[in-house]
Design a protein that fits this description.
The chain has helices at about 70-80, 100-120, 125-135, 140-145, 180-190, 200-210, 210-220, 225-230, 235-245, 265-280; strands at about 5-20, 25-45, 50-55, 85-90, 145-150, 155-160, 165-170, 220, 250, 260, 285-290, 295. The chain is of the alpha+beta class and about 300 residues long. The protein folds into 2 domains: about 5-160, 2-Layer Sandwich (Ribosomal Protein S5, domain 2), CATH 3.30.230.10; about 165-290, Alpha-Beta Plaits. The radius of gyration is 19 Å and the shape is globular. The relative contact order is 0.19. The protein binds 4-diphosphocytidyl-2-C-methyl-D-erythritol and adenosine-5'-triphosphate.
Length: about 300
């Protein structure tokens, strides 16, 4: 018997970053939106824990105990006093090291799949606790939709949204390391007072109304200067999307995937065509959000 879970990618429509904390993490006001790019995680009983992965970028995904899906299975098994004897197969569509929480999606997916396979009866709150131990983005991968994350991004408040937003994502030729981008942020702000991160009322209002123009006017990403500093060519991709009529263009999370908001599905296809022709990215995807979080298929 196998269990399969489908888990979405995310884009951060606001990523306000505070000063580095003593533990090395940064306090955030992190407004997540789940979008329709998905990984599928399948777990099957096996003699011992084993991971396989297929799809774009699969060669970059670790197949040992460091994989977030493996860590999720081990964490749940430890809590329920059993062995994590499963084969975890990841069908990857979320870009690897792309700033769209691909590894976090696999962690949340494996957790939900193992929970269903083993019938642990864990509560939603317990699963969220395990997610938060695995990584800052993992709780949101479980929940999906739209949410504000505070603390390191793991303390979530669900947000209502008044409509669907249409997005284009441009995948880059290489990945960026999330810790390296936060380190570059620290370097760039070293001589300034970093304000306490707060969610933008205009942005929350735009999400609640489902208004793409208002959302475009209020998106922000404090990690964008750091991502551009480490990967200057991303500025060309952002410019190409803006020139093609995107309402706004920004780096997704820690990058290097770039995100373009469009007024409707047709406008999104037009931006995607122009980005593909621009030669400034590896691949282009059109999708929409919010979509629901990790769910059993
Ligand atoms: C950039 C974002 O993707 C935005 O959603 C997240 O903040 C990163 O989330 P994540 O990949 O789940 O990150 P984690 O696995 O928790 O942490 C990886 C590394 O990112 C840095 N990190 C992450 C989250 C945070 N609030 N402050 C940080 O400084 C730390 O160097 C940490 O060692
Ligand atoms: N299941 C997984 N899928 C992809 N990468 C994983 C996985 N588990 C661990 N990793 C490691 O995590 C690194 C970051 O991968 P990931 O795709 O999660 O980045 P990301 O999307 O930029 O993350 P985030 O947006 O949460 O910061 C990879 O380079 C890889 O070494």
């Amino acid at each position: 018997m196998s269990v399969t879970v489908r888990v979405p990618a995310k884009v951060n429509v606001q990523l306000a970053v505070g000063a580095a904390r003593p533990d090395g993490f940064h306090d955030l006001a992190n407004v997540f939106l789940a979008v329709g790019l998905f990984d599928e995680v399948t777990v099957t009983p096996a003699a011992e824990l084993r991971i396989t992965c297929e799809g774009p970028g699969a060669a970059q995904v670790p197949l040992d105990g460091t994989n977030l899906a493996a860590r999720a299975a081990v964490a749940l098994a430890e809590r329920y006093g059993r062995t994590p004897d499963v084969h975890i197969h990841i069908a990857k569509d979320i870009p690897v090291a792309g700033g769209m929480a691909g590894g976090s999606a696999d962690g949340a997916g494996a957790l939900l799949a193992c929970d269903a396979l083993w019938g642990t009866g864990a509560s939603h709150v317990e699963l969220l606790d395990i997610c938060a131990e695995l990584g800052s983005d993992v709780p949101f991968s479980l929940v999906g939709g739209a949410a504000l994350g505070i603390g390191r991004g793991e303390k979530l408040t669900v947000l209502e949204t008044g409509g669907t937003f249409h997005w284009v994502f441009a995948m880059a030729e290489r990945g960026l390391s999330t810790p390296a981008v936060f380190r570059e942020f620290d370097r760039l702000v070293a001589d300034s007072d970093v304000p306490v991160p707060v969610a933008s009322p205009e942005l929350l209002d735009a999400l609640a109304k489902g208004d793409p123009d208002a959302l475009a006017a209020s998106v922000s990403n404090d990690l964008q200067p750091a991502a551009l500093s480490l990967f200057p060519a991303l500025a060309d991709t952002l410019d190409a999307g803006r020139a093609a009529g995107a309402l706004t263009a920004l780096v997704s999370g820690s990058g290097p995937t770039t995100a373009f908001l469009a007024r409707d599905a047709e406008a999104a296809r037009q931006v995607a065509r122009a980005l593909s022709a621009s030669g400034t990215c590896r691949a282009v995807r059109v999708t929409a959000g919010p979509v629901q979080g990790a769910r059993l298929l």
